[in-house]
Amino acid sequence: MTRPLVRPPRKNPILRTRVPTLPPGGRSRVALGLTAAAARGRLELQVCRDCGTVQYPPREACRVCLSQRLDWRQQDGAGELVSDTTLHHSNELFYRERMPWRLGMIKLDCGPVIVAHLHGDCAPAPSRVRVRAHIDRAGQAALIAIPEKDTSNMADDRQLREMTCDPKFRKVLVTDAKTALGHTLVEAVVAAGADLVWAGYAEPWKKPPGFERLSKLPQVSLVPLDLTDSRAVKDLAGEIGGRVDILINTADHHRNFGIAARDGIEVARAEMDTNYFGLLRLAQEFAPAMRSRGADGQSSAVAWVNLLSVFALSNFPPHGTYSASKAAALSLAQCLRAEFAPAGVRVINVFPGPIDDEWNQALPPPKIAPVRLAADIVEALRGGAEDVFPGDIAQDWLSRWRDNPKALERELAVMPR
Amino acid sequence: MNNRRAAYDDVVVTTPVTVPYMRYSIRGAHWFLAGALAEVLRRSGLGKDAIDGLCVSSFTLAPDTAVGLTQHLGLTLRWLDHIPMGGACGIVALRRAARAVQSGDATAVACIAGDTNHTDSFRQNLGTFSQFARDASYPYGSGGPNASFAFLTSYYMRTYGAKAEDFGKLCVAQRSNALKFPYALMKKPLSLDEYLTARPIADPLRLYDCVMPCAGAEAFLVLRRDEAEKLGLPYARILATIERHNAYPDDPIQYRGGWALDCDEMYAQAEIGPTDIDLVAAYDDYPVINVMQIEDLGFCKKGEGPDFVRRHSFTADGSFPFNTSGGQLSVGQAGAAGGFLGLVEIIRQVTGQPLGAVVAEARLGLASGFGMINYDRGLCSGAAILAAGQ
Amino acid sequence: MSESVLLQLVAELASGRVRVVDLTQTLSPDFPQIVLPPEMGQAWPFRIEEASRYDARGPGWYWNNFSCSEHTGTHFDAPIHWISGRHLPDNSTDTIPATRFIAPACVLDCSREAAADADFLLTIDFLRNWERRHRRIPAGSWVLMRTDWSKRLDPVAYQNLDETGQHTPGPDADAVKFLVDERQVLGFGSEAIGTDAGQAFHLKPPYPCHYYMHGSGRFGLQCLTNLDLLPPTGAIVIAAPLKIKEGSGSPLRVVALVPTTARAPAHSSHKGVKKKGLIRKQRR
User: Fold this and answer.
1) How far is B156 from chain A (nearest CA, A)?
2) For residue C18, which of C231, C191, C225, C185 has the smallest C-alpha distance?
3) Which residues of chain B have a CB within 8 Å of the CB of A57?
4) Which helix (H) or strand (E) holds A399?
5) Contact assessment for residue A364 and residue A318, using Cβ atoms and an 8 Å cutoff
6) CATH number of the domain that A345 lies in?
7) Among A112, A140, A161, which residue terminates a domain?
8) Is residue C161 within 8 Å of residue C118, measured between CB atoms?
9) Is the Cβ pair A87, B375 closer than 8 Å?
10) How big is the A-B interface in CB pairs under 8 Å?
11) Sign of CA pseudo-dihedral A158, A163, A168, A173
12) What residue ranges do the domains of chain C occupy?
């Protein structure tokens, strides 16, 4: 049975901080298909279009009929644990530092045999298990077998926790706690067990309803933070940057203009200044300390979450300049992901469709409620995904974009305003 | 399928050579391979120009292959092969060289295997061992073959009732054999109790279940019989050989190897049975594979391995002489040379040139090879039956 | 003649018999910026980005780039800023004759009234009372409404916003018309974020100070400070905006020359202390 996580003791400031190490991260290109699916929280394996054989490890041609038409398809991961072991010795620093480590050899019901990490609650072979694909610390897909049925404190398993960014007992910065989303997200993160949540806010003279309630929560500390002010970002990073384990950037300047609907660049510039340059300022000031704390004990620096938008994938012309600013932020977030990679800190990009707030008032439903979006973000931190598309619209646009991005461009161009 | 294969006529094996093993070396693999070839020449009396065929196996020769070695060592050849098959490379080298000499494509083929061992060699080799290893097994714990064989051992124990004591018995016997072998890196006796209580590596494997990587080389020479007699070299005849890759691909886990598919043909080709064999050298990277080879090479039925182990003794003077130089578990694994070690020991015993423990009246020896955990199982298997020449 | 006046001024300044009082707030990112409804074009707050600071980006020097609105911090409003002044001649910061940048100032102490009521409106009656006690407001002079609003160091209190908008003091329409038509003043100055009262949208006409002042080619000054260090009359104010092409206004340095013979005002609480503008809020 998994022991529930205990709040770690205070860190001894005299001791050297352990530097991050990573599990082996090299993969062939074809194996990156597993990573691409795990990034979206899915287990996918190649299936031969001609004979139906499911393949693993990933390969270039079907192991039965040599067909080169292999498609990545979602699998449910159900299987039988055929053998298991506990490692007490490893050749890589990452695992040496985390011994002992359980591994399993699983025969999936869909066919292939896989080697996977093994959750502590899985009974020794032979037993039934479920296999999941998570992104590991090296940023690659890692398969982990969990018990057939959920067990209590399952998420607290030491090995599973290496692949997740659970806010429990961690310290979280939510950069803009004043928006409807930011507000509920602070509450959701507190409910998820965070020790301390810094709730950022700009323009202190504007107090939206309910914001004062946040300061009543004992875990919450209100901090002024205006992402358009470089000195303010630098000052806050100087104060709290060394303690931030999870940074959730919810700051979002959102207006509803394309190119022709508004004269002058002032609105677009304000969107870029918060949505793109704001991210850049934050990353320059907060990322270095987080990088150095990627392996800093149980409550290590572990994730950077960007609230992007599904509009970042393909421009939504009625919110055209906003879409462009989110696309710029997406590109920069990819850069940030690469810069965080050696530290094992995960960059999670969230791409909601229109949020049910004032800036999307004119868009028809379905729109995602802030409460639901906040829950999805917390779920992404607890799970193994790094690209999250919450809600029906986001899922719909993602499918269209993956299927044929040019067709989506056309469809968005004729959507009613 | 009873496919009687061509015999090996008068192709023979001579000149077993070992370059002394060492734990670490600053030299490159070329140094050890060169040493092996030079010793083959010294013992055989052949000049370098007389060697017109070369078979090479090494994990640490990169960026060179056998081709680079020809210019490096100043060899002009009309037959060349590079065998990247790990623990099966000795058997496969023998097969390739024997047919080359038999057909006249070459007259004197030196088969050499060797590796260096720098302090980080092992880890680097493991990380890039194969595409499947890199993609699908090494990232999981990076335990290397220890993890893979832990799975196999655990499964085998659970399925066939093998106990740690059974594997321990083999390890203790091999250590006893090794104490007399001059090149063995393990020099202290091993008791069953020490074996059972040693440091755990990957459950259920403990320290003495695992080989020690080291540097070194092994070699032998393949010639026509009349050439060997002209040189006055003791020789062994090749009665039969088998080879199989990626056997039983649909087995969920490896509990049997390719020998099971081919061993009947092997005995038929040799015109003998398992009970005629005087000594066996099995590829022993882990004790469970020893037991698997004993079963799959026809000495008992699948699943009866534990019982066989309990009923026999495995020292050179035992009821089933086994890995009589100590095997890799007690001598050390010099990379690809581990795939030659057992074959070279069989050649020594059946040609009357033992270096350590002596197997009395060793007339028929069986050498078995196994290797290349590409992902979750060893893909290569092979075996050869050698007979005393004169 | 004028040469000796100027020489004497220099001497008086050097000796301190003529004091220089800085009426300007510090330009910093924390200083509140006027906020319009989100659908409108906004005025940029002051932002500053370091270009180098004796480092790899520039080893021997330190400099910044900054951005802001023409109406950020202590700033000047030109007639072109308002629709009522759009067609007047010489109505932008680059065309206003420079002679108009130096002028006498009348300081109206409304600090008690503003403390009691954030929406206090300056009326004609208040003006007449002030003139009775001090002097008739001369033509061509600045009228500066002292409210001590600059002492509200907390930006929230300075903006003083609630669900009905901003609440800051200012003149009512009749008072502005009086100053324009009856007194021909140079312009109106305030310590708050606007020359008009926070709720001036509801006056008739809306924003009467902007409407009438700029509509008659006159000026505005906002976010002034240290008005409590000025005498009711006798100070000379120098307020020269940046020479922006077709500029509607600009942040600027406003200073007052104050003769020492002038009486200090009765109820100033920060005698002789130069304020530095808003202090950054303490964080937890």
Assistant:
1) 9
2) C231
3) 131-132, 135-136, 375
4) helix A392-403
5) no
6) 3.40.50.720
7) A161
8) no
9) no
10) 120
11) positive
12) 21-36+70-259
Topology at the third CATH level for domain C21-36+70-259: Glucose Oxidase; domain 1 (3.50.30)
Helix, strand or coil for residue A328?
Answer: helix
Q: Under CATH, which architecture does the B11-120+215-231 domain have?
A: 3-Layer(aba) Sandwich (3.40)
Give the amino acid at C115: A
Chains A and C are in contact, defined as 3 or more C-beta pairs closer than 8 angstroms = yes
Instruction: Give the CB-side neighbour count of residue C35, counting CA atoms within 13 A.
Output: 18
C284 with A223: Cβ contact below 8 A: yes
Better-predicted residue by pLDDT, A363 or B267:
B267
The CATH fold of domain B131-211+236-388: Peroxisomal Thiolase; Chain A, domain 1 (3.40.47)
Closest CA of chain A from C284, distance in Å: 7
Kindly state whether residues A267 and A388 are assigned to the same domain. yes
Q: Is C156 on the interface with A (CB under 8 A)?
A: yes
Structural domain that includes position A305 = 171-413
Q: Which two tokens stand for residue A271?
A: 């969107």
- Beta pairing class for B79-82 and B53-57: parallel
- For A:227-286, CB contacts with C below 8 A are 228-232, 236, 239, 255, 264, 266-267, 270
Query: Chains A, B in contact: 3+ Cβ pairs under 8 A?
Result: yes
Contact A377, A350 (CB under 8 A): yes
The pTM (predicted TM-score) of the whole model is: 0.88
Inter-chain touch C29–A231, beta carbons under 8 Å:
yes
- A112 and A188 in a single domain? The answer is no
Q: Determine which of A229, A243, A262, A267 to mutate to test the interface with C (most C C-beta atoms within 10 Å).
A: A229
Residue in C with minimal Cα distance to A235 = C283
B120 pLDDT higher than 90:
no
Which DSSP symbol is given to A265? S
Q: Looking at the domain assignment, is residue A27 inside a domain? A: no
Residues of C assigned a catalytic role: 81
A77 min Cα distance to partner chain B (Å) = 16
Residues A153, A180 within the same domain: no
In three-state form (DSSP H/G/I as H, E/B as E, the rest C), the secondary structure along chain B is CCCCCCCCCCEEEEEEEEEEEECCCCCCHHHHHHHHHHHHHHHHCCCHHHCCEEEEECCCCCCCCHHHHHHHHCCCCCEEEECCCHHHHHHHHHHHHHHHHHHCCCCEEEEEEEECCCCCHHHHHHHCCCHHHHHHHCCCCCCCHHHHHHHHHHHHHHHHCCCHHHHHHHHHHHHHHHCCCCCCCCCCCCCHHHHHHCCEEECCEEHHHCCCECEEEEEEEEEEHHHHHHHCCCEEEEEEEEEEECCCCCCCCCCCCCHHHHHHHHHHHHCCCHHHCCEEECCCCCHHHHHHHHHHCCCCCCCCHHHHHHHCCCCCCCCCCECCCCHHHHHCECHHHHHHHHHHHHHHHHCCCCCCCCCCCCCEEEEEEEEEECCCCEEEEEEEEEEECC
How does pLDDT run across C127-176, given as a tens digit for each residue? 999 999 999 999 999 999 999 999 999 999 999 999 899 999 999 999 99
Calculate how close chain C gets to A234, using CA atoms only, in Å. Answer: 11
Helices (H) and strands (E) in chain C, counts: 6, 15
- The answer to whether residues B108 and B219 touch, using CB atoms and an 8 Å cutoff, is no
* Interchain proximity A203–C156, CB inside 8 Å: no
- Is A132 within the bounds of a domain? yes
Looking at the structure, tell me whether residues A213 and A132 fall in a common domain.
no
Residues of A in contact with C156 (CB under 8 A): 204-205
- Contacts with A, B 124-143, CB within 8 Å: 126-128, 131-132, 134-143
pLDDT of B171-210, one tens digit each? 999 999 999 999 999 999 999 999 999 999 999 999 999 9
* pLDDT digits 0-9 by tens, A361-402: 888 888 999 999 999 999 999 998 999 999 999 999 999 999
